[in-house]
UniProtKB/TrEMBL annotation:
Encoding gene (name): 106089628
Name this polypeptide is given: Rab-GAP TBC domain-containing protein
InterPro entries: Rab-GAP-TBC_dom, Rab-GAP_TBC_sf, TBC1D19
Domain Rab-GAP TBC: start-end pairs: 242-452
Length: 504
């Protein structure tokens, strides 16, 4: 047994080493270790011990631990290959739907390119346009662009309609009859989701009394943790849900591994150069989306210029396409070109970036932390996938919690023939961005990062409905229900989530 454990540890260590060697920060890390080897602090006669101490003293041990922390969370998880798909897999239809949805979105983008006579992979930017873009880079709200013929490729409602139209495999009912499920909800989807007891265990730190520490105490804790530069400690601190605003950006950067290095600055400059040199249809879609959303939001319109910079560079970033794990399923048909990042802009995409404007003054710092957050969380909310943290799982969790803990509301919706998920889907898909005031949204996102889970979105959606249950039970139309839930400006995230987790 011990031999098997040793072999497993050796295999994992070898996998970690090989993966670390492929990272951008491997070379500077390796150079720093080489410098230490040649320093007086390392004794050649006791190389192992003295080098280990020198690595600790130089702070490289923490850097290495952080690298391993991020790798274990993401890149070392096995990816499913198309050849491994089992046709008898009960989720095969959902995986197929995810690939078909991605193809449909790309097809729509390509059709828009054909309609507007634009190259799907972009074209050299006209010199006068390039010069204007370069001159106005820091005030892109003044950049002249005609968006009359451009429209969002899709919106939350479109992806919801696809999800609600899915039919699972036929199931036997009473004797030998077979029926297609669902009737109108997500209950046919065989994805594992937690019950309230399991959620309470997962979010147990929120129910502890020390979560209510004073602001002075919390400031000191933040300072000490940031001095340690240890990503897992930063993540644990975010679980308290009362992070002081001045420390939030630094804590998020450690948790997401998005601290800026020289190669990141070079990468940003290359992205900017690509935006300036190449005219792509996604540029118009980015401008259109920001003008339709953030520019009309009282909380975010002042960040319009930096959002243009960040989203334009995001659209050109080919590293995103390499890091995102897309759903695999072998289906026939034509493949359509995607933007360089692999992400087709949709209505509201800029609202994932907008809250980061409250955390960072530098567009570069903002960009890399937003990018890391999008890849780890937002992508799962905006594609059809079978990930346990994906939008389908989050919707399924919402439904099960509503049925179990708010049966009156569930029955009320059923009587009105209104799918409850239609009421909250825009909250879930955007992780409440644009719906909560920024200060409360950042608390909610603290908890997403602290517990590394999007399940908090379903819990929060349920407790909002519970909080306004009396009013909801008195109305009988979708418009009235949405009117009751439209204003979340008075909502306090932390006490409501604690209430949701502590109730029977």
């Amino acid at each position: 047994m011990e031999e098997l454990q040793d072999a497993s540890i050796h295999h994992t260590a070898a996998k970690l080493i090989n993966t670390i060697k492929t990272l951008k920060n491997y070379e500077p890390l390796y150079e720093n270790v080489q410098k230490l080897v040649c320093s007086p602090a390392v004794d050649r006669n006791d190389m192992c011990n003295t080098l280990e101490e020198a690595i600790k003293s130089a702070g490289l041990e923490t850097e290495i631990r952080n690298i391993i922390f991020h790798l274990v969370r993401s890149k070392l998880k096995p990816e499913e290959k198309p050849s491994q798909i089992n046709i008898n897999d009960p989720l095969a239809y959902l995986k197929r739907a995810g690939v078909q949805w991605d193809r449909r979105v790309r097809k729509s983008l390509n059709a828009m390119c054909s309609e507007l006579k634009m190259a799907s992979q972009g074209q050299p930017r006209v010199a006068t346009d390039r010069d204007e873009l370069m001159t106005k880079w820091d005030e892109l709200s003044n950049y002249t662009i005609d968006l009359a013929n451009y429209r969002p490729v899709y919106a939350p409602k479109d992806i919801l309609d696809v999800l609600l139209s899915l039919k699972g495999p036929s199931k036997a009912v009473e004797n030998t009859e077979f029926v297609q499920v669902p009737k109108w909800e997500f209950s046919h989807i065989s994805l594992p989701v937690k019950n309230l007891f399991e959620l309470r265990n997962h979010y147990n730190d929120l129910l502890r009394t020390e979560s209510y520490g004073g602001s002075t105490d919390m400031n000191l804790q933040c300072q000490r943790v940031l001095e340690s530069k240890h990503a897992p400690l930063c993540q644990h601190l975010l679980r308290k849900g009362n992070t002081p605003a001045p420390y939030r950006g630094a804590l998020w950067s450690y948790v997401l591994g998005s601290h800026i290095n020289n190669f990141d600055i070079d990468h940003w400059n290359r992205l900017k150069a690509t935006v300036l040199s190449t005219d792509h249809i996604v540029d118009k879609l980015v401008f259109k989306d920001i003008q339709l959303t953030a520019s009309n939001d009282d909380q975010y319109f002042v960040f319009e210029d930096v959002l243009y910079q960040v989203l334009l560079c995001f659209s050109r970033d080919t590293e995103i396409a390499q890091m995102i794990q897309f759903e695999h399923y072998p289906i026939k048909g034509k493949n359509y070109e995607a933007p360089p990042s692999g992400v087709v802009p949709f209505h509201g995409i800029c609202m994932f970036a907008a809250p980061f404007c409250y955390l960072f003054d530098s567009p570069i710092n903002l960009y890399f932390t937003f990018r890391a957050f999008y890849i780890r969380y937002c992508h799962r909310l905006t594609t059809i996938n079978t990930h346990p943290q994906g939008i389908v799982s989050i919707c399924l969790l919402f439904e099960k919690l509503l049925q179990t803990h708010e049966p009156q509301l569930w029955s009320h919706f059923r009587e009105l023939q209104i799918q409850p998920i239609r009421v909250v889907f825009k909250w879930l898909m955007r992780a409440f961005s644009g719906h909560l005031p920024p200060d409360q949204l950042l608390v909610l996102w603290d908890l997403i990062l602290g517990f590394d889970s999007l399940e908090i979105l379903s819990i929060f959606a349920i407790i909002i409905l519970s909080f306004r249950k009396e009013s909801l039970m008195q109305v009988n139309s979708l418009d009235n229900i949405e009117a009751i839930l439209a204003d979340l400006s008075s909502i306090q995230v932390l006490p409501l989530i604690q209430l949701a987790l502590s109730r029977d």
